[in-house]
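[job 4471] stage=fold_predict status=RUNNING
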Amino acid sequence: MKKFLILCITVIFFAACNQSNVFEKHHELKDNKWLKTEIITFQVEIENPDNYDIIIAIRHASFYPFANVLMGLTIETPEGESRFMQHDLIIRNTDGSFKGEGLGDIWDIELPVFENFPFSQKGNYTFKIENKMHLVEIIGLMEIGLIIKKIN
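[job 4471] inference complete, writing structure tokens
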């Protein structure tokens, strides 16, 4: 337990030092389940219009039964325009092992969904992430996060 606590503190420290992240927030899923009806929403204030990378972060348990997470991402601009794209995020290697970083039974992975995405205007953008898997609930998912990074 002591090693786990030290690792968590170290990860938090290095994450706080990352100056390229302009936004990072994670939504915890109740009972490690993502219901088909649950839409995860993030409000992001963009101060400097420019190009950014948009990344989905997933925390899951080792009993997550699938090789992927199928999700829809809608981006709404300050002017009210909307852009939707479905993403099939692969979280297992071809040998069946999980991609990303694992600690015990918990796995974290960050997957780029848009690279060099143009935020053309300053203001509040809304991101909506939907479960597009073919089941009513997906077990083994703990958190879904959104990371927006400034391109250096």
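[job 4471] summary: Confidence is low (pLDDT under 50) at residues 5-11.
[job 4471] exit 0
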